[in-house]
Design a protein that fits this description.
Elements (H helix, E strand, L loop, with lengths): L1 H48 L5 H32 L3 H25 L5 H18 L7 H16 L2 H10 L6 H22 L4 H13 L23 H5 L2 H28 L1 H29 L1 H21 L4 H31 L5 H7 L1 H20 L2 H21 L6 H25 L1
Helix pairs in contact: 1-17, 2-5, 2-6, 2-7, 2-8, 3-5, 3-14, 3-15, 4-5, 4-8, 6-13, 6-14, 7-11, 7-13, 10-11, 10-15, 10-16, 11-12, 11-13, 12-13, 12-16
């Protein structure tokens, strides 16, 4: 019996050694096969991992973009307060916001065209100083009504002038594998900054205006970073607006983005009327936290599984949110589900549509014009919300607009089905390769234990 047991033990040991040897051969063959399949692309993958700017310069660039958005959002909130005190008729209010919108759009389009690659440092310096001057003009809004209109167009122009260039700079000095991650983190900072400013905001407009001037002046600290404005950006090619609009992939993403912005912002006044101001403000606070969290999550997902999957998920969630509101408008669960869906979608959309997508689509050309055109739906929808949102809320029933919004959001998914994935195939293949190797290692470890 002892001899039999010894024989079985030796047989098992020999079998285990032999099987382990065979597995090692298969595992090595698997790795070699993966390397042969992906080897031609591995140099590109390594290139994607390279950092084009120093960590200090990346932080400075994020600060520049975040500061610009926070400053403009704070400026818009101050303008809304000034309108209440300075303008009385509907025509005056319409004129005020119209010139603000046209100033932002016109100077964004012009700024994308005029941004001089060779003197980009001076362009950004002029842009920031222009914003400080525009904020300073607001201090004299009580002197003359014309100054109110002038401040409106100047603030819009000073925001629009440099945003396409700064976003193009961001797109150039990030890679497709980290662009969404950094974009999500940037919008998280924007959300935190806007929240803190709303907390400390006082009722005195003079104090708010001084805060606005100081806030924009803080952008000047980016010029302390010597390597932020490198001359390597001068080598990139330029494109025309006609080329951008004629690009099929741009339109397949631009049209759904336009539909989403118009549907979401035009239905916002109806949500205020439907929920009431207090409940709406409470849900908005919750939604703001969700937007910040899912901006980061959406950035990681976008750089992992691709931009297209993240965008489609956001559209489906928003469509379901509006569909539930249309069918069960009085349900508390429905209201909170809509808040969740809206927060998740906006968090991911801010990361993808504002920070990432247009830089991906530009590929080997400068992306100023892509960002300028890609930002138009966001600006237009916000303008329409202020101008006609009140009339829409008065004329249209809540159930009708919710069903209408759900239908159009699901309809907007159709162009996305034909849109190409903008995350490079190399990044997706690298993720698959790592996944396969990790699985092989786990099988090896499990087999070795047995």
């Amino acid at each position: 019996m002892y001899i039999c047991s010894t024989y079985k033990l030796k047989s098992f040991t020999v079998y285990n050694t032999y099987a382990n040897f065979i597995f090692e051969i298969l595992y090595a063959y698997f790795q070699l096969k993966c390397w042969r399949y992906y080897g031609a692309k591995m140099r590109t993958i390594d290139f994607l991992n390279k950092v084009r700017l120093s960590p200090r310069a990346v932080v400075a660039l994020i600060i520049l973009i975040a500061n610009s958005f926070i400053w403009y959002m704070y400026a818009i909130s101050i303008l809304m307060e000034i309108v209440k005190f300075s303008l009385s008729t509907r025509f005056e209010i319409l004129t005020f916001w119209s010139i603000n919108f046209m100033g932002t759009v016109f100077f964004a389009l012009i700024g994308a065209e005029l941004a001089n690659n060779k003197k980009r440092r001076y362009f950004f310096l002029f842009w920031i100083l222009f914003g400080i001057f525009s904020s300073f003009v607001l201090l004299f809004y009580k002197l003359n009504k014309l100054l109110v209109y002038a401040a409106s167009v100047l603030l819009g122009a000073s925001f629009g002038l440099g945003m396409p260039a700064s976003m193009a700079y961001y797109a150039y000095y990030t890679t497709p594998k980290n662009r969404s991650k950094l974009g999500g983190f940037t919008f998280f900072l924007i959300g935190v900054g806007a929240f803190l400013l709303n907390v400390v905001k006082v009722d005195d407009l003079s104090v708010d205006l001084l805060v606005l001037i100081i806030l924009r002046s803080l952008s000047l600290i980016v010029f302390l970073i010597d390597d932020l404005f490198e001359e390597t950006f001068t080598a990139i090619k330029r494109c025309s607006y006609h080329q951008v609009i004629g690009q099929r992939s741009f339109l397949l993403y631009f049209i759904p983005w336009m539909m989403f912005c118009l549907v979401n912002y035009t239905s916002l006044p109806i949500m205020v009327k439907f929920l009431g101001v207090n409940l709406f403000n409470f849900l908005t606070a919750i939604e703001g936290a969700l937007i910040g969290i899912f901006a980061i999550i959406g950035g990681f997902l976008s750089d992992t599984i691709g931009r297209k999957h993240v965008v489609i998920t956001g559209f489906v969630m928003m469509g379901l949110g509006y569909a539930f509101l249309g069918v069960f408008p009085e349900s508390q669960f429905t209201i909170f589900f809509y808040t969740l869906a809206d927060g998740v979608a906006w968090g991911m959309f801010h990361t993808v549509f504002v920070m990432t997508l247009w830089g991906d689509l530009a590929q080997d050309v400068s992306s100023e014009k892509y960002y300028a055109l890609g930002g138009l739906p966001y600006l237009l929808s916000h303008f329409l919300q202020i101008v006609i949102g009140f009339y829409v809320a008065e004329m249209v029933l809540a159930n009708t607009i919710f069903s209408f919004a759900s239908f159009f959001l699901f309809l907007a998914v159709i162009p996305l089905m034909f849109a190409p994935e903008t995350l490079p195939e190399n990044a997706l293949k690298e993720r698959e390769l790592r996944s396969y190797i990790e699985k092989a290692k786990k099988v090896k470890e499990k087999f070795a234990k047995n």
